[in-house]
Structure formats: structure tokens, C-alpha cells
Backbone:
DNA sequence: ATAGGCGCCTGCTGGC
DNA sequence: TGCCAGCAGGCGCCTA
């Protein structure tokens, strides 16, 4: 295991592959450790950290780390669950306690004898940390928000049903966490390119074959991104100090004006579902084919 | 049901 | 050189 995990100052855009990478890298550094002290900054995150939670988590051991969509789930003793969302700029790391604390560090958990710390840093504070007393409360919370299935568990039938019964465009569908959990702006664009589908196409206008092409493309793009440890646009994510490499594989995202890797047509950039959207006007036709 | 807009928040960039 | 508008966007909320 690498001995240090330095934090970087730049930002990242954590979607499913980045969150998965964080979970994988933190798991061996966190599972089995006991939280011995908690320190919260004065500035609130999206979900303010309650001082009562300090007492609740102190003394508990970390049992397991998992991921659901873009949510990081830290299971503690007696089924208590600490759930973290990285928002836009969140970073979760385990470091030696002596490591200088960077600005915008909002939560610090001392581990074991205080030689190491779990730190949550978030420049824009779009992230959150929430404590659930048991698994049922957590499940209820996910349920209430309507969080959709994991991309790798989406069946062909579910997907075609969901797409067939909505008048929304494909980009909006992919960004909707209730349809499928974990896809954000980058992987939505990359998946639509992979599937050769125009982001503005109406979901209900797709033939089942086209819809399924998108389902498979999402899985494929996410899987490859996870293999590359996610994307580091201006930085990297995670606890091991290794950069993600998937940003080198982007075929449309952030490449407006660049030649399409398939046909050399300049990549277009439009605004869709309130997000900047990148696509190839030739490979991704707006009408069915 | 769905689109669109806003607010949250900070840091960077480009135009003048 | 300096200033400031614009932009980045996940999510929850609001209105039309």
C-alpha cells in the first residue's frame, strides 16, 4: 500500500467512476479503524453536520465502505451509516494526522490513536455528510429521493420502459438520478457519443434497439472509466495519490471544435437540460436511423 | 409530467 | 494591470 496520500488543491467532478475509485482506495485504509474524535468546520456543507453526530460516531469502528450512485456509504458499528456526497468539489482522503490541513477541510475524523485522519474537503461545499442510525433509515432516504438502479444492474426491459414513457430528451434522462444512479455531465455526453445518439433526441422516440444501445454504452463507458481510475480534469480524486486517466479518453466532453475521433467533424457544444453538452453532429444524428 | 430557472459556492478565465 | 462577468455543475426547490 502506498505510504502517503497527499491532497491536491484543484477540483474534480466526481461521478460514479470517481466515487467508485475513492471507495476502492479508501477501503483498505479505513475498514477496521476506529473513529476517536470528530472535528467540523464552522462553515456548513449542504447538509449541516450536527454536533450530536460527533458523539454518535465517536468510538465506533468502520465496518465497510460501499457506493450507491454517487453516494459514499461508510458503515460503522451497530449498523450506523455515514453517507457522503462529494458534490462538485468534494475530496475524501485518509492521511497522516501530521499532514498539513488544506483550506476548505470541513470534517476531520481522528482514527485509532490519532496518527491518521479521515478528511473531507470541499471547496464549493456542494457536498454533504449525513448520519443514519441504521440501515433502514438510510434505505428510506434513498427510497424517498427515488434514487434509481445502479447502471450495471439496469435491465433491458426497465430501460426501454423508462425511456418509452417520457418526453424528455436523452441528456436529461441520463442526468436524472431517479432513472439511473451515478451518471453526471461528463459520462452522459461520452455515453451518448458511444451509442451514436443525439443528446436532444426525445427518449420516447427511440426504437428499443437504440434505447438498448444507450444502456450498453453507459455501462461500457463507466466500466472503462473505472478501469482508468476515473477522470482528473484539473486534478485527481481519491486517497492513493494516483491520478485518474480517463480524461485522456474523452471523445466529446470538453472537446468543442476538436475533430470527431471517428469522422473529423468538429465537435459541437450546446446547452441542454441546463448543462453544457458535447456531441458530434455527424455521428450523432438528431433523427433515427 | 416536464421544462426551465434559481441558489448554493469558490476559483479560474477571458474580455475590455 | 485590474476588474468583473461568465462559467463550471449536483442537487433540491420553485414556478409555469
Residues:
Amino acid at each position: 500500500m502506498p505510504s502517503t496520500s497527499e491532497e491536491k488543491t484543484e477540483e474534480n467532478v466526481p461521478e460514479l467512476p470517481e466515487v467508485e475509485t475513492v471507495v476502492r482506495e479508501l477501503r483498505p485504509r479505513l475498514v477496521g479503524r476506529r473513529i476517536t474524535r470528530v472535528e467540523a468546520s464552522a462553515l456548513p456543507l449542504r447538509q449541516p453536520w450536527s454536533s450530536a453526530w460527533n458523539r454518535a460516531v465517536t468510538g465506533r469502528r468502520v465496518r465497510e465502505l460501499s457506493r450507491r450512485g454517487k453516494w459514499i456509504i461508510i458503515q460503522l458499528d451497530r449498523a450506523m451509516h455515514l453517507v457522503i456526497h462529494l458534490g462538485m468539489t468534494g475530496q475524501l482522503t485518509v492521511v497522516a494526522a501530521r499532514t498539513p490541513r488544506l483550506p476548505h477541510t470541513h470534517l476531520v475524523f481522528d482514527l485509532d490513536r490519532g496518527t491518521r485522519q479521515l478528511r473531507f474537503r470541499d471547496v464549493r461545499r456542494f457536498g454533504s455528510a449525513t448520519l443514519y442510525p441504521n440501515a433502514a433509515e438510510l434505505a428510506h432516504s434513498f427510497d424517498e429521493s427515488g434514487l434509481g438502479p445502479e447502471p450495471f444492474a439496469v435491465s433491458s426491459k426497465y430501460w426501454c420502459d423508462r425511456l418509452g414513457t417520457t418526453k424528455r430528451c436523452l441528456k436529461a434522462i441520463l442526468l436524472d438520478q431517479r432513472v439511473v444512479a451515478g451518471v453526471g455531465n461528463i459520462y452522459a455526453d461520452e455515453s451518448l457519443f458511444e451509442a451514436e445518439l443525439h443528446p436532444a433526441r426525445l427518449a420516447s422516440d427511440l426504437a428499443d434497439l437504440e434505447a438498448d444501445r444507450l444502456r450498453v454504452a453507459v455501462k461500457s463507458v463507466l466500466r472503462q472509466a473505472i478501469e482508468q481510475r476515473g477522470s482528473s480534469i484539473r486534478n485527481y480524486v481519491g486517497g492513493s495519490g494516483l491520478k485518474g486517466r480517463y480524461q485522456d479518453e474523452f471523445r466529446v466532453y470538453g472537446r468543442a471544435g476538436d475533430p470527431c475521433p471517428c469522422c473529423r467533424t468538429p465537435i459541437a457544444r450546446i446547452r441542454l437540460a441546463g448543462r453544457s453538452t458535447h456531441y458530434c453532429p455527424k455521428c450523432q444524428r438528431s433523427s433515427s436511423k
In short: Residues 11, 13-15, 46, 70, 85-89, 124, 126-128, 145, 175, 177, 184-185, 274-276 of chain A lie near DNA strand C (CB under 10 Å from a C1').
